[in-house]
TrEMBL record, chain A:
Record domain MMS19 C-terminal: where: 545-992
Protein's name in the database: MMS19 nucleotide excision repair protein
Protein's UniProt keywords contain RNA-binding: no
GO-annotated cellular components: cytosolic [4Fe-4S] assembly targeting complex; nucleus
From TrEMBL, chain B:
Gene3D superfamilies xrefs: 6.10.250.1280, Fe-S cluster assembly (FSCA)
Descriptive protein name: Uncharacterized protein
GO process annotations (BP): protein maturation
Entry-linked InterPro entries: FSCA_dom_sf, MIP18
Protein family according to the UniProt entry: Belongs to the MIP18 family.
Length: 1056, 202
């Protein structure tokens, strides 16, 4: 059997073997064992067969052989012969592939290409009736010829143009269309299309708009967007299409489908950016006339945005190359009707269409310097006239807003003072109106009744923009505005929500970035002058001043001045015999703290100065004050110390290492000389004032790195220090001092205690909580120490964490109610964020600690509660055990992320419901925490999860009874505070809130809401909550009721 | 339902100029110390939270407040209806001045029975143009909103403000007629329009 016969046999079912056969023959030809002529001749009997399939296979054989030959093997003559052969047989399968192989060869030339093209045009008149893959092959061949032998096609001119259009007309397959569009685009761009513009345009525009939707699991991955993009490239390819494309696209805007309109607008945008400016100019006004409607009566936001973009891009195109603005420019012709329309609409600036008119103005003026100039010339004078004639402040305000829109465009074009780009070499046309603007806006800000807040805010915004606009105002003009702002902040009484003052501060902050000098020269002295020497209790206006100062002092130089000025104020206060209220020094410290926390202190060049002035010298003052050597007792106040401590903490954290070592040595001595120092640890006679300095010591300690070597009392171990601190923390003392000891203990154990010494901590724990704890009575101070110590250990996941947690839980079962309840509240300490023991301060907080606490405690608590429930009320278990456990649970829940709660929902939901049932007098906070947890669960997961646990009815009933207003007449009934009522209503609201929109509509359809059975009950009960004495509660009830009325559908009606 | 827009260019009031309730708390506290983190820096120091029990104590403050009753007033009614959207524009009735504070009043339903808790709320509606055929729909929307949001002891009375509409009497008759209101609310299309108007209520 010859190779050909074998090939014909296997080609259908074994492509690989067929290929091998062809390769073998090719090798034979190459080795001259046989000749190409012989191969062609061997086809003889088959290629004239009646059966087209057989003919096709035979031709494929030849193609396969040629494909397997090396690219340079065939001579020109051979190629020519083969080419003619394939062209004759082009309709037979395999011939197109053969031609495609041939045209890739180096010796293939232009004449041959022409022959192929002609063969295609002649033989494939009926291409569209052939199969998709055959058509694809033909397009592929044409596409390849287009890239390799374009000149051949190009020289055929109109013949190839018409031929290709005819060939491709009627194509519907998306894969083929992708090819068709890209072939035709070449023709559109490169051919002379004058004779056939419309034909060519129609050949692609027929496909507009594309409504293709890819089948699911489409293996070719062609999206509608791909097709739209290619089609759009075709439509926008040449300006010659403009007479056809622009009217047709504008016609499509009459469509009722927003998507079609979007496609049309996108195509229009592409045309404007690709057609030449003259063409754009011809159609600019026609386009404006059509798009005007889309913007003024916007159906959809995105359509109006696209339309605005088109208007702007037309202006940009028409501005190309414009150097001199004149009335005769195409740009001017285009803008005339636009600005005229805007002027007309803006005559009544409060009406609805004034806003779109403002947007048109904004977009078109920001297109270029030229368009800005034209817009300003056309619009500003009439606006100013209307302003003068306006009969009301509301109208004037709307006009100011319009001018502000122009200022925004100016900022976009000319930049702000801080803009780094090169200076524009065009004069700002607004300069002509500078004085008028100053007058109008200044008058509007300062010259009207103070109550016209929104009007004044508009004026303020305008002046702010003009002040930041590059090369516009002179410094003295900005300075005048700064003075206005100072006046507003310092002299005016607050009005309403005080929005004006907020805006004024924001404006000063903004100006401080551009003109810091003005702020330092004008605002600073004015503000600092109003600060009193001391707070005699008569007025606390200094708080406002300090707040303003803090907010405008973010800029570097201003910040430094602020700190220096405030520190000197503070030092004066510290020297006074009668310093007045401590609120004032504390507010000064808070201001410094606030500003410092807004900046990156570790990069501040003055850091060492702040260290000396604040940490070193103030700490020294604190130590002196504690020993009674100060002139007054400011630095003996716990809140002042707390603020100062935070400030020191912030600075110490940013210090370089060598300085930190110096700090470490002074943690307890607070930089006082050895003979004066009386460090708190191990001291026998420390006074309350001295003990209080531990607040500072704790904050400083928190700022030090964990491997700090110079800490006092830590060698060889910190055992003695720890025991001393614990002893002090369990003795009664002032709350703030007590907290400092607790935090100090936790810091040492969590951050500084080496792993090898963890035994010391366990020993401490056992001392505090002997294993027979249930028998002994523990003081509240001891319980807190136990929890803080546990917090330190749990956060670093010390080896004994589980035992620790179990021992803590056993405290809840104490027969002593006080012990049990104090411990129950302690559970919220464990995982709560703390300002001292925090990640920022480098505390050792393991990621899994929260999960560990939760998963260890939840089953134990749940088990205990079940036990109590089963035992019933006659059991000997004391009454307080169950509330204590629920309180502990709510303490933990409030400190862990909801994501951890979700997997345990079936366990936890019944517990939460029981928490809502608590009626004890102090159950309010437990119930509040429970409601917060529930709200998060419901908000994140919808009603579905509640339904899965089967608790919808019981949850809703409890929420309704918590929402109820019960007057506090009977002592026994726990009152629902307004906050509880609001939170319960919020949960009800969230329940009915439709599940997030990403849930497919199909999934919801046909399924009744699980809330339906309780809907009537909720609607009825809420009707009475609407009469709650508290407004916030009523508001929440209105929202909840509305959500239930709207969101919970009744059984679907049959008639729909 | 209505294809032609009847008033395409109505006057709009600025949101900041609409009547609002000034929260008494706002004027005394953040008035002094703004919002943003400065206030939180301060409060963090002012109310140094010593122990978790701290938060337990705060609930007592709550119940102190609890004694002060806040009656339902005109502003509250205004807040309920001013956020309804106009059926023609995505703009609120408040901004279009269709409802306004002075046109709302609350009166005892039975003035001769001083102890009666019954109250009547009347709301006068000002259509944007005198021949607006949507006035009835707007009136219905306001009515539905109030009936959903007020306790049972309130009677709702919605009318067109005198002299602002060409067929005010007709519309008023329709709005006051319980049967006709009920019949209108059975109409699915009409309810669809009203539900859409109420969607924006906050």
């Amino acid at each position: 059997m010859s190779a050909l016969q074998t090939f014909l046999l296997v080609v259908d079912h074994d492509k690989q073997e067929a290929k091998q056969i062809a390769e073998q023959i090719a090798q034979d030809v190459e080795a001259k064992k046989t000749t190409l002529i012989e191969v062609v001749q061997s086809l003889g009997e088959y290629i004239n067969d009646e059966d087209p399939i057989l003919r096709g296979k035979a031709v494929s054989y030849l193609t396969a052989v040629i494909k397997a030959l090396p690219p340079k093997f065939l001579s020109r003559q051979q190629i020519q012969v083969l080419n003619s052969f394939f062209c004759d047989r082009i309709e037979d399968g395999g011939a197109v592939a053969g031609l495609d192989t041939l045209q890739k060869l180096d010796r293939f030339n232009k004449e041959l290409a022409e022959e192929v093209v002609q063969a295609i045009f002649e033989h494939f008149q009926d291409l569209q009736s052939r199969s998709q893959s055959q058509r694809f092959q033909v397009y592929q061949l044409l596409n390849d010829l287009m890239s390799a032998h374009r000149s051949a096609l190009y020289d055929m001119g109109d013949y190839s143009l018409v031929g290709m259009v005819d060939l491709m007309t009627g194509e519907k397959d998306p894969r083929n269309l992708m090819l068709v569009f890209s072939i035709l685009k070449v023709v559109m761009v490169e051919w002379d299309i004058t004779n056939h513009t419309e034909l060519l345009f129609d050949s692609v525009y027929n496909y507009f708009p594309i409504t293709f939707r890819p089948p699911p699991n489409d293996p070719y991955g062609i999206t509608a967007q791909d097709l739209k993009d290619r089609l759009q490239e075709c439509i926008s390819s040449t300006s010659q299409f403009a007479p056809h494309s622009i009217p047709s696209l504008l016609d499509k805007l009459d469509s009722t489908s927003p998507n079609v309109k979007r496609d049309a607008l996108n195509a229009l945008l592409a045309c404007i950016n690709s057609y030449d400016p003259d063409t754009v100019s011809t159609y600019s006004i026609t386009i404006w006339e059509s798009l005007k409607f889309e913007i003024l009566n916007a159906q959809e936001e995105f359509l109006s945005e696209l339309s605005l973009q088109i208007l702007q891009d037309i202006a940009k195109r028409l501005s190309e190359g414009v150097t001199q603005v004149s009335d005769q420019l195409p740009l001017a012709h285009y803008m005339r009707p636009v600005t005229k329309e805007c002027n007309e609409q803006l005559r009544e600036p409060q009406q609805k269409q004034a806003r779109p008119a403002q947007q048109i103005l904004r977009f078109i003026s920001a297109a270029s310097f030229a368009s800005f100039t034209l817009a300003v010339q056309a619009v500003v004078p009439p606006l100013l006239t209307i302003y003068q004639e306006a009969d009301g402040i509301a109208k004037q305000r709307a006009l100011l807003d319009t001018l502000v829109v122009l200022f925004d465009a100016a900022l976009e074009l000319f930049g702000e003072w801080t803009t780094r780009t090169s200076e524009p070499n065009v004069d700002n046309p607004l300069l002509e109106f500078k004085d008028q603007f100053s007058d109008i806006f200044g008058q509007a800000l300062m010259g009207v009744v103070k109550e016209e807040v929104s009007f004044r805010i508009s004026a303020l915004k305008g002046l702010l923009r003009l002040s930041t606009l590059r090369y516009f105002f002179q410094d003295n003009e900005v300075g005048l505005f700064v003075q206005y702002l100072d006046e507003i902040l310092l002299q005016e009484q607050p009005i309403g929500r005080d929005d004006l003052k907020k805006e004024a501060i924001a404006a000063l902050t903004e100006i401080s970035k551009h003109k810091p000098r003005l702020i330092m020269d004008i605002t600073f002295p004015a503000f600092v002058a109003t600060l009193p020497d001391s707070d005699d209790g008569t007025n606390s206006n200094y708080l406002t001043t300090l707040e303003s100062l803090a907010q405008i002092s973010v800029e570097k130089d201003i910040f430094e001045t602020l700190v220096r000025r405030l520190l000197s104020k503070l030092n004066i206060l510290l020297q006074k015999e009668q310093p007045g209220s401590v609120a004032y020094p504390r507010a000064i410290l808070v201001t410094i703290l606030y500003v410092m926390s807004q900046r990156k202190m570790d990069q501040d060049p003055h850091l060492e100065l702040y260290y000396d002035k604040i940490v070193v010298s103030m700490c020294r003052d604190v130590a002196a004050s504690a020993s009674g050597k100060a002139k007054n007792n400011i630095l003996n106040d716990a809140t002042v110390l707390d603020t100062l401590g935070r400030l020191c903490n912030l600075i110490v954290r940013s210090l370089p290492r060598n300085k930190q070592d110096e700090v470490a040595e002074n943690v307890y001595t607070l930089y006082s000389a050895t003979e004066d120092s009386s460090p708190v640890p191990f001291s026998h006679s420390a006074s309350d004032d001295q003990l209080r300095t531990m607040i500072i010591s704790t904050y400083i300690l928190a700022g030090l790195p964990s491997d700090c070597a110079n800490l006092p009392y830590t060698h060889p171990t910190m055992s003695a220090l720890l025991f001393d601190i614990v002893k002090r923390s369990t003795t009664e003392c002032a709350p703030a001092t007590h907290l400092a000891f607790l935090r100090h203990l936790a810091l040492l154990v969590n951050k500084f205690l080496p792993k090898s010494d963890l035994g010391i901590a366990t020993e401490l724990f056992d001392t505090l909580l002997p294993s027979n704890a249930e028998e002994t009575t523990l003081r509240p101070e001891s319980i807190r120490s136990i929890f803080w110590l546990s917090k330190a250990l749990v956060l670093r996941l010390a080896p004994k964490t589980t035992d620790l947690l179990t021992s803590l839980l056993s405290l809840l079962s104490s027969p002593e109610e006080v012990t049990s309840m104090t411990a129950a509240r302690g559970f919220s300490i464990l995982l709560r964020e703390d300002d001292v023991l925090s990640a920022t301060n480098g505390a050792n907080i393991r990621l899994l600690s929260k999960q560990r606490v939760f998963t260890t405690l939840l089953p134990l608590i749940s088990g205990k509660i079940r036990e109590v429930n089963v035992a019933g009320s006659d059991s000997p278990t004391p009454q307080h055990i169950k509330p204590a456990h629920l309180t502990a649970l709510s303490g933990i829940l409030s400190t862990i992320p909801p994501a951890l709660v979700m997997p345990e929902l079936p366990t936890i939901l019944p517990l939460l419901l029981q928490s809502l049932d608590l009626q004890t007098s102090d159950s309010q906070s437990v119930r509040a925490a429970t409601l917060e947890t529930l709200a998060v669960i419901i908000r994140d997961n919808g009603v579905g999860v509640i339904e899965e646990c089967g608790h919808v009815q019981s949850l809703v009933t409890r929420l309704l009874s918590t929402a109820e207003y019960k007057p506090a007449s009977e002592k026994s009934v726990a009152v629902n505070s307004p906050r509880l009522r609001v939170n319960a209503l919020k949960c009800l609201f969230l329940l009915a809130q439709a599940p997030s929109s990403d849930a497919p509509a199909v999934a919801k359809a046909g399924k009744l809401s699980p809330l339906l059975p309780v809907k009537a009950q909720v609607i009825r009960s809420l009707r009475f909550v609407l009469d709650d004495p508290k407004r916030d509660v009523r508001k929440a009830a209105v929202d909840a009721r509305g959500a239930w009325l709207r969101g919970v559908d009744d059984a679907p009606d049959d008639d729909e | 339902m209505v294809s032609e827009i009847q008033n395409s260019n109505p006057t709009i009031l600025n949101a900041a100029d609409l009547p609002t309730r000034l929260q008494p708390t706002l004027s005394c506290k953040p008035g002094v110390f703004g919002d943003g983190s400065f206030a939180s820096t301060l409060s963090l120091v002012n109310t140094i939270e010593l122990f978790p029990e701290g938060s337990y104590l705060s609930t007592e403050l709550d119940s102190d407040d609890d004694l002060m009753e806040e009656l339902i007033d005109r502003q509250e009614i205004y807040d309920l209806v001013s956020t309804i959207s106009d059926p023609e524009h995505p703009i609120s009735l408040g901004a279009l001045a269709v409802v306004s504070l002075p046109d709302i009043c609350i009166t005892p339903t039975l003035p001769y029975v001083p102890d009666s808790p019954l109250r009547t709320v009347s709301v006068l509606i000002t259509p944007t143009i005198t021949h607006c055929s949507l006035a009835t729909v707007i009136g219905l929307g306001v009515r539905v909103r109030l009936e959903q949001s007020l306790p049972p002891r309130f009677r709702v009375d919605v009318r067109i403000k005198e002299g602002t509409h060409s067929t005010a009497d007709e519309v008023n008759k329709q709005l006051a007629d319980k049967e006709r209101v009920a019949a209108a609310l059975e109409n699915a299309t009409l309810m669809g329009v009203i539900a859409k108007m109420l969607e924006t209520c906050q």
